C-alpha cells in the first residue's frame, strides 16, 4: 500500500528512470487509489511526468554532520565577512557549504553541494521551518543555490540526489 502524498520527494525507480535526465522530483498531484494510483512528479528541469505507484519511491535518508559553524567558533583562515555565518556539513561523499547573511528579517542563505569536490548533475533542495515547506529550489551547474528572506527558527535543509535524501539541521537566530 502506497504512503506517498503530494509534496513528497521521490526518485523514479527502475528502467523508466533511465528515460529522464534526472530521476528525482517532487509529487505535485496524486490520483486514484492503491494499487492503481498515479502521481505527477515535477523534475528538477521543471518538466512534469506521470508515474504509477510502483515507479516512484522515496530515497533513503542520510543525516549530514555539521563540521563547521562560525556562529559557535571562528575558523582561522576562513575568508569572508564576520557578519556572515558559515556552515559546512558532510554526509558520505557529499559536502554542503552554507552562508547565512543579512540581519533582521532580511536573512539570505547561499549554499553549494559538492560530491568529492564536483557539483552533482542535479539535485532538489527543500528548506523547511517548523515542519512547513518554505522553499523548493534546484542547484545551478556549480551545485549552488539561494534562498532569500529566510525566517528565524529551526531549519531543516533536505537535499534530494539520486538514491539519497540528505538532511542537515541548523538554527537561524536573530543577529
Spans where pLDDT lies below 50 across 5 or more residues? none
Which architecture name of the largest domain does CATH use? Sandwich
Measured on Cα atoms, how large is the radius of gyration? 17 Å
Most strands sheet: 5 strands, antiparallel
Number of separate domains: 2
The portion of residues forming beta strands comes to over 45%
Shape estimate: elongated
Could you give a quick summary of the protein structure above?
The protein is mainly β and 175 residues long.
Architecture overview:
The protein has 175 residues and is mainly beta. The protein folds into two domains: 9-57; 61-172, Sandwich (Immunoglobulin-like), CATH 2.60.40.10. Strand 11 and strand 12 form a beta hairpin. The protein has strands at 9-12, 24-31, 38-42, 48-52, 56-57, 61-63, 65-69, 85-91, 94-101, 108-115, 124-129, 132-138, 144-148, 153-161, 164-172. It is elongated, with a radius of gyration of 17 Å. The strands form three sheets. Strands 4-3-2-1-5 form a five-stranded antiparallel sheet, with no helix packed on it. Strands 6-15-14-11-12 form a five-stranded mixed sheet, with no helix packed on it. It has a five-stranded antiparallel sheet with strand order 7-8-9-10-13, with no helix packed on it. The chain is built from no helices and 15 strands. 0% of the residues lie in helices and 52% in strands. The mean pLDDT is 84.
Amino acid at each position: 500500500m502506497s504512503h506517498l502524498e503530494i509534496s513528497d520527494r521521490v526518485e523514479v525507480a527502475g528502467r523508466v528512470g533511465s528515460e529522464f535526465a534526472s530521476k528525482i522530483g517532487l509529487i505535485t498531484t496524486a490520483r486514484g487509489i492503491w494499487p492503481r494510483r498515479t502521481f505527477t512528479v515535477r523534475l528538477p528541469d521543471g518538466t512534469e511526468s506521470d508515474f504509477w505507484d510502483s515507479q516512484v519511491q522515496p530515497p533513503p535518508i542520510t543525516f549530514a554532520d555539521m563540521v563547521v559553524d562560525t556562529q559557535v567558533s571562528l575558523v582561522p583562515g576562513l575568508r569572508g565577512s564576520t557578519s556572515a555565518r558559515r556552515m559546512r556539513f558532510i554526509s558520505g561523499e557529499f559536502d554542503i557549504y552554507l552562508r547565512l547573511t543579512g540581519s533582521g528579517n532580511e536573512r539570505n542563505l547561499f549554499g553549494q553541494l559538492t560530491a568529492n569536490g564536483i557539483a552533482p548533475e542535479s539535485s532538489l533542495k527543500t528548506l523547511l521551518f517548523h515542519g512547513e515547506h518554505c522553499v523548493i529550489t534546484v542547484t545551478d551547474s556549480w551545485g549552488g543555490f539561494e534562498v532569500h528572506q529566510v525566517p528565524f527558527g529551526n531549519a531543516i535543509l533536505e537535499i534530494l540526489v539520486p538514491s539519497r535524501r540528505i538532511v542537515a539541521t541548523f538554527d537561524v537566530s536573530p543577529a
